[in-house]
Amino acid sequence: MKRLLELQNGADYKLVESAEGYPVIGSGGPFTYASDFLYDGESVLLGRKGTIDKPLHVTGRFWTVDTMFWSKICSDVDGRFAYYSACTIPFAYYSTSTALPSMTQGALKGHSVCFPPLPEQSAIANFLDRETAKIDALVEEQRRLIDLLKEKRQTVISHAVTKGLDPSVPMKDSGVEWLGEVPAHWEVAPLSYRYEVQLGRMLNEARSSGDSMRPYLRVFDVQWGAINVLDLPQMNFPSDARSTYRLEPGDLLVNEGGSYVGRSAIWRGDLEECYFQKALHRVRPRDKSADTAEFLLYVMEYATNYGVFVAGGNQTTIDHLTAEQYRRYRFAYPPLTEQIEIATFINQETERLGELVSQAERAISLFQERRSALISAAVTGKIDVRGLVPASSQTEAA
Description:
Among the domains are: 1-115, Adenine-n6-DNA-methyltransferase TaqI, Chain A, domain 2; 187-333, Adenine-n6-DNA-methyltransferase TaqI, Chain A, domain 2, CATH 3.90.220. The strands form seven sheets. A five-stranded mixed β-sheet has the order 2-4-3-8-5, with no helix packed on it. A four-stranded antiparallel β-sheet has the order 1-9-6-7, with helices on one face. The protein has helices at 79-86, 91-94, 105-110, 118-163, 191-194, 239-245, 293-306, 323-328, 336-379, 391-397; strands spanning 5-9, 17-18, 22-26, 29-34, 39-40, 43-47, 56-58, 61-64, 68-73, 171-173, 181-183, 187-190, 195-199, 213-217, 222-223, 226-227, 234-236, 252-255, 264-266, 275-276, 280-285, 330-333. Mean pLDDT is 92; it is low at 312-317 and 392-398. It has 398 residues and is an alpha+beta fold.
């Protein structure tokens, strides 16, 4: 590789950072500006630490961070060919065995690559420019589709939990801004009227051993619609605390703090006995013949995405959803049979949309595999690309 690129070390950008100027480039691309530049010209950038497997091809004046290498292109090398060759480096093989993936100049310089004559380098680069652009366009289409499917999911949830499934029913003003109009036969009331809210047990740092040790859930363990029950920590839950903090199937667990305020999941009874720490609320219907956590789970997802639990929709303005606050929030409650119908409908729709998202993600994976295989085949001479790109295109690219 040193026959193609003269590798150079990046530098700390803090002293030259500015509101405008030359791009400062990290492993993910430009992220700020500098008042000075390290190099002016064509270059291939390679990660030194962190994200090491995503080479970049840049031109013009730039600054690179100290965790990236930049390079001068050798005089008899097409810079784009050098970039595509760099994309085939087995980074995992060369990475040093540290907690943070790292590359050395020696490993990169010593990596063996094919070195065709300059005209053939340019032909390969032109071919790959054209073909990878097609693949990248297909990938972008799939990513846009995924975004649309996720938006559709949120639309399905928001409409179902605020308007119901029957468009012909009369409506009324809920008196709650984020709910708007709701079916006239739904009740609008504070959460505490229909559900018990219990904050979890304060973490006992001593975590004494013995018969009172029990598994408990943390914020980390409660994701949207899913709860981790593997390798749970344990702490002391004496007999007088177990009735207060023991989970029952059908309980809704809601994250109380941090940037995950409102994130919720239903406890399905995956363990015979389990408890929860202070950073979680347990929400339990006062009357299970009137309410179900299945419906409230989707209400929580809609309310959280709407920014209901974060002042002004800005997650830096609130750190905790206290039990007192949470109990006062007003929600709309249809009859139990309708709650179940709505939750069933949302389950079916989100499952259908989720499968479409999975199909799009699989397509992206296949496209990216195809892209990598095509680059590898072209830069190693497995396919002859001479003549596959019109001469006019080659001239324009050059």
